[in-house]
Amino acid sequence: MAEVAAIGTTVPPGPAPAELERPDFEIVPRKGLVLVAVVFALLIAAIAANKLWPLEFFHVAFGGAWTVIDLFLGLVLGPIMASMPPPARVAFTIRLMPKMLLIMPTVVTVTLAAGWQLGHYLGTIDSSHPNHGWTVASYIVVGVMAIIALGLLEPANVAVLVELKKRRPNPAVIERLMKRFIYSAGIIGIMQIATLVIMTKLASG
Amino acid sequence: MTERRLPPVTEIGMLSLALIVAGGIYLSAHIPGDVPLAPAVILLVLSAALLVGNLVALSRVRGFPWRRFAEVARWALLAYAITAGMIEYVFLRNDLSGGPLVVLTLSLVVYAVHVPMLIGFTVARYDEPEVWNAA
């Protein structure tokens, strides 16, 4: 199949990659993992308790964070990063991306797990609910966002960090991966507007 | 210009994810009523076939940096197994059972394997091109 359906991956020509000045960093911030574990433990407790307030808290707080981060990253920070000079962009990327690697999967998992349980509690996931069409619309929007995030954004996030960790990172590869990350974030950011419309409609009844 | 020939792993991976997402939406949209499982099963089987096809296609790429791939994919596998486990927990907590539970669980397995594969592939494809490009 490799021979049949091959694609060309091009890396721009030129001299050997220049040395990029960058501080040492952890691809996955270990201290942050403790925080993620605490959040997941609290989420499990909230789902097990099946009480309205904790479920609402986790779904609204983390869902709000997911929406705002995507909107801000895609529509504000992304264009700013694209216009930054490469050394500044690298410096910013090294500080931002490891945090994103922990924040986004956590925020998404908590929002979806708490949201499903909340929907079960409130009956909005029940196919007989009067606003069920809006709930299904939210599944579709989240589904499309998940495909883009899991297939394009997250791999680019990890790959750019691994590239920056190398002794001589290739600026062309970083450029390509960051472009992919920023465009994906922009598309997801725009789709989050649909999420806001659907969720406010569902909350309003 | 350096050119590397690779199978369309990312594109196939996204298509595979789209199929299980569609199956998941189909089942979720009918809860708690009875729902014919056939469409979701077909989508799951197609998605799993694409996963297998992707792995086979990648295994045939000569000189692919498997060490780098495994280094990244195994940690991603752990992370995505945890997130899949969280979602599975919610299904079990809500007494989901029978055919829909089996289909959704297997969909989560495809998700938890395919996403780490995509992450490992994206990292490995840019690994020391001068070494494996010549292979």
Please characterize this protein's 3D structure.
The complex is a heterodimer of chains A (205) and B (135). Chain A is an all-alpha fold. Chain A has one domain (30-204). Helices cover 76% and strands 2% of the residues of chain A. Chain A has helices at residues 30-49, 52-82, 86-122, 132-165, 171-204, and one strand spanning 7-11. The longest helix of chain A is centred in the middle third of the chain and has 37 residues, at 86-122. The termini of chain A are far apart. The model of chain A is unreliable at 1-10 (pLDDT under 50). By secondary structure, chain B is mainly alpha-helical. Chain B has one domain (9-132). Chain B is 76% helix and 4% strand. Chain B contains 5 helices and 1 strand; from the N terminus they run E-H-H-H-H-H. Chain B has helices at 9-29, 38-59, 66-93, 98-124, 129-132, and one strand at residues 2-6. In chain B, helix 1 runs antiparallel to helix 2 (38-59), helix 2 (38-59) packs parallel to helix 4 (98-124) and helix 3 (66-93) packs antiparallel against helix 4. Chain B is elongated, with a radius of gyration of 17 Å. The two termini of chain B are 17 Å apart. In chain B, 42% of the residues are buried. The chains are: A mainly alpha (205), B mainly alpha (135). Strand 1 (7-11) of chain A pairs antiparallel with strand 1 of chain B, so a sheet runs across the interface.
